[in-house]
Amino acid sequence: MKDGALLQVENLTKAFPLGRSLADALRGRPQRALQALGGVSLSVNRGETLGVVGESGCGKSTLARCLVRLYEPDCGAVRFEGKDVLGLTGEARRSYHRRVQMVFQDPYASLNPRLSVGDALAEALTVHRIVEPSATRDRVGALLDLVHLPRDAADRYPHEFSGGQRQRVGIARALAVEPSVIIADEPVSALDVSVQAQVVNLFLELQDRLGLSLVFITHDLRLVRHVSHRLAVMYLGKVVETGDTEAVFTAPRHPYTRALIAAVPQVDPHQRSTREAVRGELPSPIAPPPGCPFHPRCPIAEPRCRTEVPALDRRHGGWPVACHLAGAPST
Amino acid sequence: MTERPQPILEVRDLRVRFATSRGEVRAVDGVNLALAPGDTLGLVGESGSGKSVTLRAILRLLRSNATTTGEARWRGQDLLAMPEKRLRALRGREIAMIFQEPMSALNPVIPIGVQIAESLQAHTALDAAGRRRRAIELLDLVGIPSAAQRLAGYPHEFSGGMRQRAMIAIALAAEPKLLLADEPTTALDVTIQDQILKLLLRLSRELGMAMVLVTHDLGVVAETCERVSVMYAGRVVETGPVDRVFTAPGHAYTDALLRSMPHGGVARAPLRPIPGLPPRLDRPLQGCPFTPRCAYAEGRCGAEAPPFAPVAPGQEAACWASDRLARREVPA
Ligand SMILES: Nc1ncnc2c1ncn2[C@@H]1O[C@H](COP(=O)(O)OP(=O)(O)OP(=O)(O)O)[C@@H](O)[C@H]1O
Ligand SMILES: Nc1ncnc2c1ncn2[C@@H]1O[C@H](COP(=O)(O)OP(=O)(O)OP(=O)(O)O)[C@@H](O)[C@H]1O
Ligand code: SF4
Ligand SMILES: [Mg+2]
Ligand SMILES: [Mg+2]
């Protein structure tokens, strides 16, 4: 086990079978599958924020759901404090579920519409016996304060909130049970910059105070640079580069990371459309390209990129990257 | 003010109140908007300021505890007053909406392809084969790979960003004249966001589609919109050309909003949010609603509502401190 690694993921894979049409079945065509995760390895240290970025559909939420065991991965291992998580049962499994919490990408779909927000939070507090029943009300109020919602929000139902308010309810629910790790799937994507700043500051503060570890999934590169110690860049179900956030931003080694960073939108209206985005055919997890998954869109691809899969390794020193042509880190 | 073409959508004094067990909530409190064909208007403002409710009110898609007053004139006809049947014919065809939370708008038990085809069937003359072709084309346009194999997929089998794009495909199916887009790219990474925004801009240029784009991403507004309106506590507090509003804001709230963005400064240093909470909407508001949180507030701010007044050509704001913002002149 790596020094200080609290949560460790090794070679995780997950495929979803695709619906097969009757015609295909009759012609005896094999059942097709969608490879959502193609061998993901990463680790999160105590008190650390790991940022996870990558294109829509590259497998970020699937990874998050495997970590909290909402999906059972096909292969690979997840270890928490050195212990295998995928085999946990009974009390041990319950304890894991308390200590590793998830903030869902879609708060609308993850909140029970028939429970008032106060009842939903109280339920989490009671199930995991976090506070004495008599103290529940106060604790619910304190949780709402934390995410900058008014206390009267406790009496309201999910549909009575705006999108951003609902997202904060989801965060309060994850915080309620005092977890050691929060897997936050786009936790602030629906928030305006000011409330976003409040919530991000809250995460940073809890981290300093309680040593909370965070897996921060986001497509906002400005934000990820701001909050995370380390970064994992995913592409088509794989990690293609991972390292210290500042180092990766300053001198990205993978061509995909370079393209991502170059495409960050500018606030200055005079700087419109001067930037380059990733071009070319979008990759499909139903028919992933052979060789390097990025080769069809890569500006520097060579013949071997089309046939040989680049492994995620340190190549010429520096941090791990999965590109045949990554040189020595240029800093 | 510069000469502007006839608006196709004109929203006047829009107000929405929700009846709740805790009393009445004034979510939208006198909003005015105007759009000409091909216009792109950004609508920004703090979480809970009334952006989504404004869009839903225009198409009368609010829950039954809402009361809406004011006008929303579509080519001269008031959408708020016309018979439900007539409105239903416009909805989805001439005016389409992209909802903030895709799962609230998509039907969880119907495959995505069928949902797109239903929209095409309702609003175009295409036959079944044509609808299937067009559905694939639309998914392809919004950047969903292996589109043909995806038609049979259910919403929960799509990723968050793919659901959002499937909804965009449904909204664009009928080539609407007005698109009300509520956070259409929140779940998307920059490259796909860029592709979607370019698609929307192309439709706006080529088909004269007008668009209201609600987003909290000021970068997206800067990239996409000509004009922007800023909402606070149910009101539009500033409106004007994007390049003016973002470089020389006329309202102290806009100014504070711009300053709370991460600027790629020191890593992991706290960001600078606007202190305090937005006001409760179930109490009457006196004066400027931003007063308790405003660094520029002066005596009259809490008592007297500032008028919505011109601060520069095409730019208006309701703030007593408009002329002090540029000099950062904070009262002692
Ligand atoms: N339950 C499921 N059944 C079938 N396919 C699924 C399921 N969940 C996810 N997928 C597929 O797996 C792939 C990865 O999806 P995932 O939700 O992990 O992406 P993501 O990186 O979170 O994207 P986004 O940024 O859009 O949220 C997608 O192609 C998606 O359609
Ligand atoms: N059905 C309802 N009943 C009571 N209050 C409601 C209802 N729907 C919305 N509200 C309230 O109306 C206000 C405006 O909500 P709206 O959804 O328009 O905000 P928003 O500007 O879109 O915010 P966000 O950026 O978070 O999506 C919020 O304070 C919300 O709590
Ligand atoms: S391995 Fe080849 S195709 Fe893949 S990113 Fe590197 S250069 Fe590009
Ligand atoms: Mg996701
Ligand atoms: Mg909203």
UniProtKB/TrEMBL annotation, chain B:
Sample GO molecular function, one term: ATP hydrolysis activity
Keyword Cell wall biogenesis/degradation found: no
Bilayer topology annotation: Peripheral membrane protein
Main localization, broad class: membrane
Gene Ontology terms: cellular component: plasma membrane
Subcellular localization: Cell inner membrane
GTP-binding listed as a keyword: no
InterPro entries given in the database record: AAA+_ATPase, ABC_Ni/Peptide_Import, ABC_transporter-like_ATP-bd, ABC_transporter-like_CS, Oligopep_ABC_C, P-loop_NTPase
Residue ranges occupied by any ABC transporter domain in the UniProt entry: 11-258
Highest taxon, organism lineage: Bacteria
GO BP term, pick one: peptide transport
Family as reported in the entry's similarity comment: Belongs to the ABC transporter superfamily.
Protein name: Methionine ABC transporter ATP-binding protein
